[in-house]
Write a structure and sequence with these properties.
This protein has helices at residues 2-36, 43-56. With 57 residues, the protein is mainly α. Helix 1 runs antiparallel to helix 2 (43-56).
Length: 57
């Protein structure tokens, strides 16, 4: 289980880095990002959900 939690931490860290990059290009690519966005939740919500899930494990 510890290996799983470490992998989940790595995913969360990667998503936070991706969010920072997303914010950097949002002004110039927001329409394209929104058009192709495959998830039903906001990116920050997903990160928070994963963090809460990890804490509950």
């Amino acid at each position: 289980m510890e290996t799983f939690k470490q992998a989940l931490d790595a995913v969360i860290d990667s998503m936070i880095k991706l969010e920072a990059e997303w914010e950097r290009i949002d002004n110039t690519h927001s329409d394209y990002l929104a058009e192709q966005y495959p998830l039903s939740n906001d990116w920050r919500e997903i990160v928070m959900i994963l963090m809460e899930w990890k804490d509950s494990l």
